[in-house]
Amino acid sequence: MTRQPLNLLDHLHQTILQFLNPFTASLSQARQAHAQILKTGLSSDTNLTTKLLSLYANNLCFDDANFVLDSISEPNLFSYSTLIHAFAKLNQFGHALGLFSQMLSRGLVPDSFLFPSVVKACAGLPASKAGKQVHAIASVSGLASDSFVQSSLVHMYIKCDQIRDARKLFDRVPQRDVIICSALISGYSRRGYVDEAMQLLSEMRGMCLEPNVVLWNGMIAGFNQSKLYADTVAVLQKMHSEGFQPDGSSISSALPAVGHLEDLGMGIQIHGYVVKQGLGSDKCVVSALIDMYGKCACSFETSQVFHEMDQMDVGACNALVTGLSRNGLVDNALKVFRQFKDQGMELNIVSWTSIIASCSQNGKDMEALELFREMQVEGVEPNSVTIPCLLPACGNIAALMHGKAAHCFSLRRGISNDVYVGSSLIDMYAKCGKIRLSRLCFDEMPTRNLVCWNAVMADMQCMERLMKLWSQKGLTDEGWYYFNSMSREHGLEARVEHYACMVTLLSRSGKLEEAYSMIKQMPFEPDACVWGALLSSCRVHSNVTLGKYVAKKLFNLEPKNPGNYILLSNIYASKGMWSEVDKVRDKMKSLGLRKNPGCSWIEVKNKVHMLLAGDKAHPQMNQIIEKLNELSSEMKKLGYFPNTHFVLQDVEEQDKEQILCGHSEKLAVVFEGREISVRDTNLFHHFKDGVCSCEDYW
DNA sequence: ATAGGGTTAG
């Protein structure tokens, strides 16, 4: 009679065990089994509870896992190990460490199997203090000589940016294996220590150790990450020449470097290898190939590789979009993006960010804003990469409200501290004429890299344009202060764009000679930005002699930029040298260059309106013109006459008046009673209460 | 239980 219930229990036990099969069980089965266990009082069965723990952990059900752990009267090392291993594997490092400390406080002693997972958790966070403590505990437990523990510790120190501790530990290991060497070599590679990595690789020979594929791949990925592109490719070649077959992982880590180097020959060779080895079905390899051809300016091959794919892949689609826009084919990029979407392709955050970046980098700012909205409608959340791709579009068209919305989003999502987000905010606010907000963003950035110095230097340029401090030494001094402190206090080398900013600051305040001598002393060839800055100051200060000289330099550097011709002709015009003006205009005509039409944008009720000079395309154009005429006659009644002196063209007075009234700025001003930002060929004007921030200087 | 885990967006 006593056997019957035991059999029943046995049967139940078997059923629950089946439900808890780690390979087949679903979360709901785990919950059912859990309920059964509780009902039948099987909680003391360690076999069952451990399986349950592992299932909950693998499904990231922290609360359930903790509940089970608490219900075990005497949780042992095995219970904790199960959970910690699972969490470490699933990148739930905080949970893993929390359980580890709980386990220690219960007086349980970890074994050599548990330590690697715990150390991995410290590496993953990374948490260097905890890592050191765990190291100490391992030493006290006498387990620090275990090779698994040692390898994981080396990895942890590298992740915590403590290369010297990693090396110290490595040096004390008597019996080194491939794995611990691989950990250190990959660490060196990721931090850009090429010599140390290569040295250790050759030392392995002396230890009778052969590198394996994982080691090679770690080196390739590491060098690529350190932007040491030539070294990346060199390692791939070395690997191959030493008789190792690069796998998909090797190829997809090396291809970005080939692209950066624009080494098409190497790219084609690798493509051949991919085909030969049958790696063509590897999605990462294919995407990387498409990207490589895109970077090497081979639009045809980019599309070809894409179309030869046997299976659609979102990564490859993204690479194609970027590849097309990189080669001046934005419209094609937009077209294929639309096709992908219409085909029901699962577009991810990279897809949306790519197309937004393509637009904002190619003068399609309104489209970028629209796509950003569309993306959110589709339920895709922007991230810290999306924002810096979008913000230039806001800045370009002074879409302040959109920019502010992106700023608020960044604050809510806790990504405003990201150095790229911060830099693009600085830039966006400066371009919208919001200097104080721009500076606020700069001051609040916790870390500053080259990108944000670029932004703040550009910001200085805007300030110089927008403030009244033209000739006072204050702003120039501030510029010098930033310029010098960049290298002195932050160890960043001034680059050509920083020189361009200083040239602007100096030349705008009238120190044209000082600016020119700075250009001559630059440690590298001055580019078009530098000369352009000087030329536009020559225009401000009507300096014909220097202007003529600078323009010549610019015509050589960028013969197709109409802006330079316009500037020079304006310099002549400001001195009434109309025959010289005609010469420049004739030159432009013979080169087939045309002045880009003036363009204004205005945000009304969160919608951006674009107004092109001389363009009648705006749907409300009739009302706008009516209102303009109304304003004009009202202004004239109050004693205002269009100042035709500012029309730098040798035309009849009446035409000048016409030209002035057709200005896109005027068109935007019709939306009166608001803050208005307008941009001419080289700066933004910010109107508030009818007063322009440039104080009518321009 | 230890090293790499790759591609496409700034």
Automatic annotation (TrEMBL):
PPR repeats lie at residues 76-110, 177-211, 212-246, 313-347, 348-382. Pfam families: DYW_deaminase (PF14432), E_motif (PF20431), Eplus_motif (PF20430), PPR (PF01535), PPR_2 (PF13041). Residues 639-671, 673-698 form the DYW domain. It comes from the Eukaryota. InterPro entries: DYW_dom, E2_motif, E_motif, PPR_At4g14850-like_plant, PPR_rpt, TPR-like_helical_dom_sf. GO terms for molecular function: RNA binding; zinc ion binding. GO terms for biological process: RNA modification. Keywords: Repeat. Belongs to the PPR family. PCMP-H subfamily. This is DYW domain-containing protein. It comes from Prunus dulcis (Almond).
